[in-house]
Every structure is written in structure tokens, then in C-alpha cells.
From TrEMBL:
Domain ABC transporter: 5-235
One Gene Ontology biological process: response to antibiotic
Membrane topology value: Peripheral membrane protein
SUPFAM superfamilies for this protein: P-loop containing nucleoside triphosphate hydrolases
Protein name: ABC-2 type transport system ATP-binding protein
An example Gene Ontology molecular-function term: ATP binding
GO cellular component, one term: plasma membrane
Organism per entry: Actinomadura namibiensis
Top-level taxon: Bacteria
Entry's localization field: Cell membrane
Keywords noted in UniProt: Antibiotic resistance, ATP-binding, Nucleotide-binding, Transport
UniProt main location, coarse: membrane
């Protein structure tokens, strides 16, 4: 079966930094994949190239077989994206943002109005109906970003740190939405630093280290008998000597 997302030889260099190094990754259809890695490992750069937001120096990205760079219209219709540092029209309310983006996506006005109302209510943004996006908190921005990613009912969701700065009640709602999305046949790839969250939500995991995939597979294949955190620290921590302490802090 064609993967929901296929990355082959994806490469990006910023000056002397090789951020992503000939990276290969498949996100199988119907899977919920967690992308984990240390700060600066290359997760955001990889996801940005995967969805057509950042042009790779080499390699390819396909979404359900559609090439992100040679067939961007077809590929982008299939994917909903929550990018890092999402730029939003700041002088609109959440409802106006969803209406604007829904109409740009070619959805009917009635459909947009219905879906926007449901998303705003579910994500508890309807109480701030007159608030402009510029006045939103960090967590509210994440939530409206997630709503924009879901609005056109994509087949694949690509979410960069969707739970960052989100309160526990909203996080529980988002988890329910994402689980429902996968149960309904959707596929998800999300990046996170929270191993417990990845273990709780995802059925597949990929560990990125220095721009390459250090391990990938089902959750059980990658972690074996250990916790994901132990596996992760062992895989990527070993290089710089693992966990160290500040001796001058001890009394
Ligand atoms: N626009 C840029 N210009 C220069 N260097 C960049 C740029 N974006 C990323 N990098 C570098 O590329 C590498 C990978 O960064 P990236 O943001 O993809 O990592 P990450 O795994 O998402 O990190 P984090 O977990 O901290 O968000 C880092 O060394 C970073 O400094």
C-alpha cells in the first residue's frame, strides 16, 4: 500500500550545518507516528520539507504517492499541517481565520460555517469569539492552528509539537480528536519531546538523530521491553556521554 507520507534521501543544509542528512522515512496509511529527537535533531526541518514549506537541497517527499514539489496542488489537498511558528492573519478572529482559509480551500460557505463552529466549540475557542488572533495566548494559537489543519478533512495530518503550551483539558480534547481521526482511516505524523505522550497516542515512532533516522518502526519494535524514554536516551544520548551532572551544585 502506498504510504501516507514517503520521504526519500531528504537533505537540507543551512550554511555549514547539515540539518537533514539523506533521510528516509515511511508513514504507513492508517498509522499514528511520533517523530522524536533532541533539540536541533532536524524534526522541524524534515516536517517542513515533507509538506512543501521548505525546499529540500535533495531528495523527495510524496503524500499518498503525490510529489509535494512537482504536484503541490494534489499533494497539499491531502494534508493538514500545523507548522512550527505558524503565521496566521493576526487581525482576524478565530472564526474569521477558519472562514478565510476554508473558502481558500474551495469549501462551500455553509460547510465552512458548520465546521468552524464545531471546531471552535470543541477546542473551547468560541468563548473568545471576538478576540483577534494577535491577542491569543500561545496555547490558543496552537488550537486555532490545529483547527485550520483539520478544516478541509485531510487524509494526513502533519503536526509539529501540537501539544506544546496547551492546557490539560484542551490536550485531552485534542487527543480524542486525533484518535478519532486515525480510527476514521486518517494518518498522522506528529513531533514531540514528550515520550509518555508518544507512547500513549502513537503506534509508530521514528527517532531522529543528527538529521538521520536512528530507529523507526512500530512502538514495540523500537522500544522493545524498555520504556521509549530509556530507548531514546540510549540511542541519542550515548554519543555525548549520556546524562551528566553539575558537580558544583552538590553540597
Ligand atoms: N532557518 C535556519 N537557518 C539556519 N539553521 C537552521 C535553520 N533552521 C534550522 N536550522 C538548524 O538546523 C538544525 C535542525 O533544526 P530543527 O529546527 O529542524 O531541529 P528540531 O529537531 O526541530 O529541534 P527542536 O526540538 O529544538 O525544535 C539545527 O542545527 C538548527 O540550528
Amino acid at each position: 500500500m502506498t504510504p501516507a507520507l514517503r520521504l526519500r534521501g531528504l537533505t537540507k543544509r543551512f550554511g555549514d550545518t547539515l540539518a537533514v542528512d539523506a533521510l528516509d522515512l515511511d508513514v504507513p496509511q492508517g498509522s499514528f507516528l511520533g517523530l522524536v529527537g533532541q533539540n536541533g535533531a532536524g524534526k522541524t526541518t524534515t516536517l517542513s520539507m515533507a509538506v512543501g514549506l521548505l525546499r529540500p537541497d535533495g531528495g523527495s517527499a510524496t503524500i499518498f504517492g503525490e510529489d509535494v514539489w512537482s504536484a503541490p496542488g494534489r499533494a497539499k489537498a491531502l494534508v493538514g499541517v500545523l507548522p512550527d511558528g505558524l503565521a496566521l492573519p493576526e487581525r482576524l478572529t478565530g472564526r474569521e481565520v477558519l472562514t478565510y482559509l476554508g473558502l481558500l480551500r474551495g469549501l462551500d460557505r455553509d460547510v465552512v460555517a458548520r465546521r468552524a463552529a464545531e471546531l471552535l466549540s470543541l477546542l473551547e475557542l468560541d468563548r473568545a469569539d471576538r478576540t483577534l488572533v494577535i491577542e491569543y495566548s500561545t496555547g490558543m494559537r496552537k488550537k486555532i492552528g490545529l483547527a485550520t489543519a483539520l478544516l478541509h478533512a485531510p487524509r494526513l495530518l502533519v503536526l509539529d509539537e501540537p501539544f506544546e503550551a496547551v492546557d490539560p483539558v484542551s490536550a485531552a480534547t485534542i487527543k480524542t480528536i486525533l484518535r478519532g481521526f486515525v480510527a476514521g482511516g486518517g494518518s498522522i505524523v506528529l513531533s514531540s519531546h514528550v515520550m509518555a505522550l508518544v507512547e500513549q497516542l502513537c503506534d509508530h515512532v521514528a527517532v531522529i538523530d543528527e538529521g538521520r533516522v536512528a530507529a523507526a518502526g512500530t512502538l514495540d519494535e523500537v522500544r522493545g521491553e524498555r520504556s521509549l524514554e530509556d530507548t531514546f536516551v540510549e540511542l541519542v544520548g550515548g554519543r555525548d556521554g549520556g546524562v551528566r551532572e553539575l558537580s558544583w551544585l552538590s553540597r
